Amino acid sequence: MAYRVGVDIGGTFIDFCVFDTETQDLSTLKVLTTPAEPGAEVMEGMRRLEAAYGIEPAAVESFIHGTTVGVNTVIQRKGATMALFTTENFTDVLEVARLRMPESYSLFSTRPEPLITRDRVFGIKERLRADGSVHTPLDEASVLDGIERAKARGAEGIIVSLLHGFRSAVHEEAAAAIIRRAAPELFVFTSAEIWPVIREYERTTTAIINGYVHPRVSDYLDKLEDALRRSGVPAEPLITKSNGGVMSAELGKTSCVNMVLSGTASGVIGGAFVARACGVENAVTLDIGGTSADVAVVIDGAPQYGMGEKIGEFPLYIPSVSVTSIGEGGGSIARVDEFGVLKVGPESAGSDPGPACYGQGGERPTITDAFAVSGFLGHHDLAYNSVALDMEKARAAMATVADPLGLSLEETAEAIIQVAIAGMYMEINKLTARYGIDIRDFALVTFGGAGPMLGCFLARELKMGRVVIPPAPGVTSALGGLVADIRNDFVRSLFTTVEEAMPDLPKTYAGLKAQALDWLREEQHHEGEHMLLPSADMRYSGQSFEIEVPLDAAWLESGDEARILDAFHRRHEDVYAFNDPEAEVQIMNLRLVVAGEIEKPALKELDIGSGPATPEHEIEVWFGGARRTAPLFERDKLLAGQTLSGPAVIAQSDTTSCIPDGFEGVVDAGGNIVLTWAGEDG
Question: Between 20 and 30 A from 41 (CA), which of 367, 443, 642, 667?
C-alpha cells in the first residue's frame, strides 16, 4: 500500500484527506487543533488514521500540508520585531504608502500602524539611478551603524529595501552580506530576493511580511517535520502556496510570504477540482470553516489570481489565488451590541473553547450553536467523534442573546443564521462586481465544516440556481493539497516601452525560463510533465497601473512585437471596454509561471441507484419562522442517480448539509450532490 496525505489546518480543526494509490480509496478525518502545541494534532491524526483505516505512517509517500499560521501571525500581529533599511532620505516609505486612505469614501478611515514602526526604520547611504546604475556607492559604515541601532531597539531581523532595488540587487545584496557578517544572530531578507518589482511601497511591504512571519513559520515547519519523523512518516512534507501550487517545507522556511495564504488557496484548488469533476466550468467556491468564509471565483475551470490581496490590513503583492475572506464561520460569535442590534463575527470561538455545543468550555453562542438549537445538528457523530454535541449548553449560550432581543431560542438561532447570510451576501456581491460577472450564471461549490450548512441559504439569497456539495465537504481543502501542482512565479522588471524592450526580450525570457526550470528540477526535484505560462504587466504610457496580459512563449522567443501588442489591446478592451491601438504601450514586468504537474487522484465512482433516496427517519427543525418536519439522509448510503428534495438534512462525519425548500438534488457518479433551485416563482 502507498498513500498520499493532504492536510489542512484551520482555526478549529485539522483535516486529513488520504488517497490510497492502489485501491483509489479516499479516507478522511478531522482532529481538533492544538494551537499551544504545534505538530501534536498531526501526530494524533496519524495515530487515528492508523487505528480507523489501517493506514501505516511508513507507507505515506507524499504529505502535502496547508496552514493558516502565516496569515494568522499577521492578523494577530504576533510576528517578529524587525528593522527596515531604506535608502537615505526615504525612511517614510511605510507611512507615505500610496497617499490614499484604505477606504476612500469613509470619513473615519485610517491607515494601519506599520508592522515596522518608524523608530526601527533606518536610512543608509547609497543611491541607484532609475536604470540601475550606481549614483552613490553603498557606505558600509552607515550599514554597520544601522545594525547597532537596530539591535539596540530589539530587532530580531532586518529587511533591506532600497530605491530602485528592482532594477539592480547589487546594493541590497551587499548590505545583506554586511549584516550577515556583522550580526549573524539576525535574519535578513532583501526586497529583490522576495519579489523584485517596481513600486517601493509594494515591494517593501511584501518583503516585510516575509520577514514578519519567518520565525513563527520556520519554527512551525521544524515542529511539523519533527512530528512526522516521530510518527514514522518517511515523506518530506510539501507546503501549499498562496498561488495554489506546492513547494518543499524547507523552502517554505525562508520563502514564507509564498505560503501566507496557504490554507485558503488549498480550498480554492479543491473546490475547482470538484467543479471540473461535475462538468462545471464557472463556479464560486465557498469555504466556511470555524473562523471565516473564504470566497473565490473559478472561470473556465481555472481559479482566478490577483495581486495585492489583503492580509489583515496589509496588501500582499505576490501572485496568489484571489480569495475574499469574510469574518463569519461556524465558530463566529453572536452578540447584541450597545444599541440592541444583533451582530455575528468576526470574533470566533476557535477550537478552544469552541462553540458552546462542543462542550469544551464555550459559553457564547455561535453559528454552529444556532444550527444545533434549530435542530439541524445532533443526528450523527460530530467531526468523527472529536466532539460530542451538548444541546443544553448550546441552548444556555443562545439564551444570553435571546433574552435581550426578546425572542425565543429558535427565533434567535434563525436570526443569527440570517445575519450571517446577509454579511456574506454583501461581500460576495462586491467580489462579483470586481470580476464583472453575473453570479446567477455560476454554480456555488460549498464546503468546509460549515459550508454545506449555510450554502443553500446563501445561494437562494444570491439567486444562484445551482449548488454543488462535494462527497467529503469538510475536508475539501485537504483534498486541494492532493491535487495541487508544484508551482512558482518568476518576474523580471523591464519598465520600458514594448518597442524598446523588443531587442532584448527573447534573451530576457530565456533567462526567466532557465531560472524556472532550474527551480523545478534542482530545488523541487520534479522530473514529470510541466507547463510554462508567460505573461506581462502592460499599460498605455501615462496610465498609473498595468494589467496582466497572457502571452505565447513563441511570441517572446521570436520577438513578435505585433502579436504582443495585439494581445495587450484585446485584453485592455476586455477589462475597460476600450483600447487605443495607436498609443504607445509600456511593458512593466515580464512574468513566468512554471507548474510541475502532479498526478491527480482518480476517485472511485459510487454504486448506481435510482429514484428518490430513502431517508433514515424524519426530524424536527426550525426554519422559515416555524417548526418543520424534514427527512434525514445518511450521506454514505446515497447512491449515484438517486434524487432528493428540500427541505432535507444530510448527515455525515465531517459536516451536515441543510437543504431548504425549493431545491431539487441528484447524486452524481462521483458522489457529489448537485442541487438546482428553480427560484421563488418556481
Answer: 367
